[in-house]
């Protein structure tokens, strides 16, 4: 009698187990299918117009006048690349310097305070960064260097700050993952701490650091709100760091609200191009981080 | 086990409430959609209209002039709102001018330039006139601020000032009247255009061809940058739509928007 109940209980547990596994599978696939649906939707909405007006004029055309059916995305592609490159020029030195100080040249207590603070930076909404940029940075640039202030420089600085948490936290993790024996060995051989960092830790953590930079780059290229607010959104290839610039993401968000017909399709096409660029970046990021895992 | 049951209950509740989420909370008898420039004024009209006709629901949606016109054609709304003239195949819709709005060319209050010719405004926005000293201002480059493609305000400016000439690519582009005003208010060398009703003490409007941007000059025709605010419908409005349009055009309806900074039709 007692054995029978026990057995039935076990069957029931197994059945529940199967049910839960099935439910989890459905949930997992729903996440994948959402991605699939988004991809199909964007491509389906965006590609016809690219081929209608010719891929070359779409990608290499310098004029963006949707109301006259002139769709050239080249200024926005260049704009996205300039702003992202600018963000990296600012984000990489500061980010890596901060990561090295946190792992090698600071006490545990300092690290315990600074690292959460840095990670908190990632939680600040981008509209707040944009607002700070407009209120403080843009007037400063206008008064100091001239030009309208809304510029590549302003956008690069703000995005550079925005990608710091990504670069710092992943770099810190990969520097800490270097086996202590490397560090000890280097010091035992008479190297200074800086030499140890430069010649032992950095090469050992290299792929993790590269992955952190690529993820930061992905964040910079995808940022929309802050760039709309501070980059000036002029659809022209910029001639200087102080010139306004429009990125691919800004182009979509700026004009989406009123766009109809082919204009709307052209904005989806902008999305397709952005999608391709981000896919390439993610693939590269995955490739470098998987190489890191293979290392001892 | 209890957790699983809890999940089932949660799921059941979710399924049960899902259709309810989509139901309208209040009834809608008349829908207007279109220009975001007209939307705040249409909201005002709708509010007063509903006070006078308790039990009726008037729903005002934005989306932009083109969207509103399309929605009207497809029957998604009874009245479309457009802040630009109809063009091409839109012309077969029935249109009623419900108000007029001036466009102001604005600069920073500290700018010594008081007035310009309309032709000079065109040159500024086409990128041919690049420095303030040609206009009697300081020897500084002009920061040109425009609206994004598709906006009704930009459409009206294009039509009234630019004609076939393009607004040059290097112009800073913002997506609302408010941000254009904000940027011009911050930058002493900037110039932009916004709805006359939205000019405040942060910026100053330029005289065009010797006429100050004010109601008097618009009514006597000396200030040229005026655009109509249109209601459009499939055929002449009937029933509730007609009642609403009649209210909008009545002395009371026109007085409402005059208070809000727009110009009445007469």
Which structural traits does this protein have?
heterodimer, A: 296 residues, two-stranded antiparallel ribbon, 13 helices, 79% helix, globular, B: 266 residues, nine-stranded mixed beta sheet, 9 helices, 38% helix, 21% strand
Report on this structure:
The complex is a heterodimer of chains A (296) and B (266). Chain A has 296 residues and is mainly α. Chain A has 13 helices and 2 strands, in the order H-H-E-E-H-H-H-H-H-H-H-H-H-H-H. In chain A, strand 1 and strand 2 (70-71) form a beta hairpin. Chain A starts with a helix and ends with a helix. By secondary structure, chain B is an alpha/beta fold. Chain B is 38% helix and 21% strand. Chain B contains 9 helices and 11 strands. Chain B has helices at 2-22, 39-52, 65-74, 118-126, 152-162, 177-186, 215-219, 239-249, 251-259, and strands spanning 30-34, 58-63, 79-82, 94-107, 115-116, 143-147, 172-174, 190-195, 204-205, 207-208, 226-233. Mean pLDDT of chain B is 85; it is low at 16-25. Chains A and B meet through helix 1, strand 1 and helix 5 of A and helix 3, helix 5, strand 7 and helix 6 of B.
Overall, the morphology of chain B is elongated
> Poorly predicted ranges of chain B (pLDDT <50, ≥5 residues)?
16-25
Encode the helix/strand succession of chain B as letters.
HEHEHEEEHEHEHEEEHEHH
Distance between the termini of chain A: 56 Å
Strand content of chain B: 15-25%
Helix percentage of chain B: 25-40%
Please tally the helical runs of chain A, counting DSSP H or I stretches of 4 or more residues. 13
Average pLDDT number of chain A: 89
The largest pleated sheet of chain A is described as:
2 strands, antiparallel
Structure class of chain B = alpha/beta
> Looking across the biggest beta sheet of chain A, what order are the strands in?
1-2
Helix vs. strand class of chain A: mainly alpha
Estimate the helix proportion of chain A, in percent. over 70%
* Overall radius of gyration of chain A: 25 Å
Distance between the termini of chain B: 74 Å
Count of DSSP strands of chain B: 11
Count of discrete alpha- or pi-helical segments spanning 4 or more residues of chain B: 9
Give the strand content of chain A.
Answer: under 5%
Which descriptor suits the 3D outline of chain A? Answer: globular
| Largest interface, chains and sizes | A-B, 35 and 32 residues
Mean pLDDT of chain B: 85
């Amino acid at each position: 009698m007692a054995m029978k109940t026990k057995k039935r209980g076990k069957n029931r547990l197994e059945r529940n187990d199967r049910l839960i596994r099935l439910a989890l599978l459905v949930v997992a696939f729903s996440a994948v299918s959402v991605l699939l649906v988004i991809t199909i939707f964007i491509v389906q909405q965006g590609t016809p117009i690219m081929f209608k007006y010719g891929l070359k004029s779409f990608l290499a055309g310098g004029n963006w006048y949707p109301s006259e059916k002139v769709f050239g995305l080249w200024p926005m592609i260049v704009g996205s690349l300039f702003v992202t490159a600018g963000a990296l020029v600012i984000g990489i030195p500061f980010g890596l310097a901060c990561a090295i100080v946190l792992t090698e040249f600071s006490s545990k207590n300092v690290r315990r305070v600074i690292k959460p603070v840095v990670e908190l930076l990632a939680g600040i909404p981008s509209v707040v960064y944009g607002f700070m940029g407009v209120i403080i940075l843009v007037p400063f640039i206008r008064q100091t260097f001239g030009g309208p202030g809304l510029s590549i420089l302003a956008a690069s600085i703000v995005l550079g700050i925005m990608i710091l948490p990504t670069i710092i936290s992943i770099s810190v993790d990969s520097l800490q993952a270097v086996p202590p024996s490397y560090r000890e060995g280097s010091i035992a051989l008479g190297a200074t701490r800086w030499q140890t960092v430069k010649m032992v830790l950095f090469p050992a953590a290299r792929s993790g650091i590269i992955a952190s930079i690529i993820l930061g780059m992905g964040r910079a290229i995808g940022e929309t709100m802050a760039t709309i607010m501070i980059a000036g959104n002029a659809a022209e290839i910029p001639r200087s760091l102080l010139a306004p610039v429009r990125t691919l993401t800004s182009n979509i968000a700026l004009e989406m609200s009123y766009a109809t017909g082919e204009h709307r399709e052209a904005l989806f096409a902008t999305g397709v191009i952005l999608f391709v660029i981000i896919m390439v970046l993610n693939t590269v990021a995955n490739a470098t981080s998987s190489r890191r895992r293979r290392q001892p | 086990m209890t957790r699983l049951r809890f999940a089932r209950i949660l799921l059941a509740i979710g399924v049960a409430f899902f259709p309810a989420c989509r139901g309208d909370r209040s009834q809608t008898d008349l829908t207007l959609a279109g220009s975001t420039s007209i939307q705040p004024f249409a909201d005002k009209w709708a509010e007063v209209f509903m006070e006078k006709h308790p039990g009726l629901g008037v729903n005002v949606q934005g989306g932009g002039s083109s969207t509103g016109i399309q929605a009207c054609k497809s029957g998604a709304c009874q009245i479309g709102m457009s802040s630009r003239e109809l063009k091409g195949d839109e012309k077969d819709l029935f249109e009623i001018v419900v108000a007029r709005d001036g466009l102001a060319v604005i600069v920073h209050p500290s700018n010594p330039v008081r007035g310009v010719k309309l032709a000079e405004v065109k040159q500024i926005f086409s990128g041919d006139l690049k420095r303030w000293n040609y206009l009697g201002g300081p020897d500084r480059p002009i920061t040109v601020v425009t609206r994004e493609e598709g906006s009704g305000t930009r459409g009206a400016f294009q039509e009234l000032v630019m004609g076939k000439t393009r607004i040059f690519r290097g112009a800073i582009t913002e997506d609302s009247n408010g941000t254009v005003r904000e940027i011009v208010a911050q930058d002493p060398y900037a110039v932009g255009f916004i709805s006359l009703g939205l000019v405040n003490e942060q910026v100053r409007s330029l005289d065009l061809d010797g006429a100050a941007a004010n109601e008097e000059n618009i009514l006597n025709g000396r200030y040229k940058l005026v655009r109509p605010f249109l209601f459009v419908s499939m055929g002449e409005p009937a029933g509730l739509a007609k009642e609403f349009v009649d209210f909008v055009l009545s002395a009371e309806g026109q007085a409402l928007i005059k208070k809000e900074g727009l110009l009445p039709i007469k």
